[in-house]
Amino acid sequence: MKQYIAFAFAVLSLPVFAQSSANELSRLQQVVDDVKSDYALDKRQAYYDVKAFHNAEGALTVKGTLSDSVTARVLRQELANAGVDYIDSITTFPYKMGQIRIPAASLRTGGRHAAEMSTQAVLGTPIRIMQDDSDFYLVQTPDGYIAWVPSSSVVAKSDDDIKAWKEAARFIVSSPYQVRAYYTADDEGPRNVVTDLVNGCIVVAKNNSLVPVNGKLNIELPDGRTGFIDPAYLTPIEEWAAQDFDAKRILDIAYSMEGTPYLWGGTSTKALDCSGLAKVSYLANGIILMRDASQQALTGTRIEAKDWRQCEAGDLLFFGNAKTGRVTHVAIYDKNGNYVHSSGRVKRNSVDPDSPDYLTTPFLHAVRIHGNEETPGIIRARNHPWYF
After folding, report:
1. Are residues 47 and 125 located together in one domain of the fold?
2. What pLDDT, on the 0 to 100 scale, is given for residue 18?
């Protein structure tokens, strides 16, 4: 009789235990999903691949990888608050650094050449290498953007390397046009070219020597290659980073690219998309903007479309779907309704309906970057820990 009662109790109890376990799993997964929604919803800025499940032994487990240690701490705290015992298999990507080694590296949405290009980074740009176990590295750029880049476009750097780089005599290419570094200081022939360089590339004076050779500065590239370049094309990085807001500088760079072809994902003077034009132009003024137009549209001080006459030089104008408000395009405002943008090519148009240069693409709103430096999505390079 006792054995029968014990057996009956065990049979009746199994569904209760199973249901309890299912409820706990559901609670853990809900926490995982809630933290993702609050802290890592934009996959362009955050890597968050975490799930709750029963492991082979039936134990509740939370496993996955995140890009941000702060989000990992929040997740662990919220899981603790749920009051459910679980196996913690949560990891974060390491904080290893590197630099771009070619004039304009193409970063993609996946680790293959056929994947869509989402952004670019120019030579010398400091990047975070999160995953480096294949021919493509998962990296993060200074604006927080996460994408895949061929390993051949990157050179890994130790902490000591980065420290030495920050202390070195560094220069940024400030010429609006492509320039070249040469193997020797006395020959600018086509067979003496080490590399071309574009606006925003960062190089180091070899051995920190600022003494010109035949009027050229001996420089070192991130991967150790050396060359000679006319110093007129360069600006000391401290001087570049110390700039105050300069709408003329921003617009001069943008206009210097007039006629440059549109390239989806492009963010260099070689070819660029609409938000790439904004990024490249602002970076010349030492200001790092978000990558995409939809991200840039959420920064700064908003100005409604009907108030466009209040816009100032350097403001960003956003266009898109008038019904949904979805942003699909960005331009840089100049004056009198005129703006410069990349659409097919870099060109000029107007938001003034009375202008012959008016475009009918719905103008949604503008944002003012000036005065909003160091607010979310807008950072001066001089305050970015990867640069200084």
Report:
1. no
2. 57
Edge to edge, the sheet with strand 96-100 lists: 117-122, 104-108, 146-150, 136-140, 126-131, 96-100, 154-157
Total of domains in the chain: 4
Domain that residue 339 falls in: 271-383
Is 246 domain-assigned? no
**Model pLDDT, residue 21:** 84
Backbone torsion region of residue 208, taken as left when φ is above 0, otherwise alpha when ψ lies between -120 and 50, otherwise beta? left
Catalytic residue from among 54, 113, 201, 274 = 274
Residue 276 is assigned to a structural domain of this protein: yes
Which residue is catalytic, options 201, 341, 365, 370?
341
Q: Do 279 and 375 share a structural domain?
A: yes
Q: Both 304 and 343 in a single domain? A: yes
Please indicate, yes or no, whether residues 150 and 61 belong to a single structural domain of this protein.
Answer: no
The yes-or-no answer on residue 274 being catalytic is yes
Residue type, 279: K
Contact 383, 374 (CB under 8 A): yes
Between β-strands 87-92 and 60-66, what pairing exists: parallel, antiparallel or unpaired? Answer: parallel
Whether 113 sits among the annotated catalytic residues: the reply is no
What Rg do the C-alpha atoms of the chain give, in angstroms? Answer: 26
Tokens of 327: 């942003």
Judge whether 191 lies within some domain: yes
Spot the catalytic one: 54, 113, 201, 329. 329
- Would you give the DSSP letter of residue 151? G
For residue 104, what are the CA distances in angstroms to 121, 209, 363? 6, 26, 31
Mean pLDDT by 10 residues, the chain (388 residues): 44 49 94 96 96 96 97 97 96 97 98 98 98 96 98 98 98 98 98 98 97 97 98 98 98 98 98 98 98 98 98 98 97 98 98 96 98 98 98
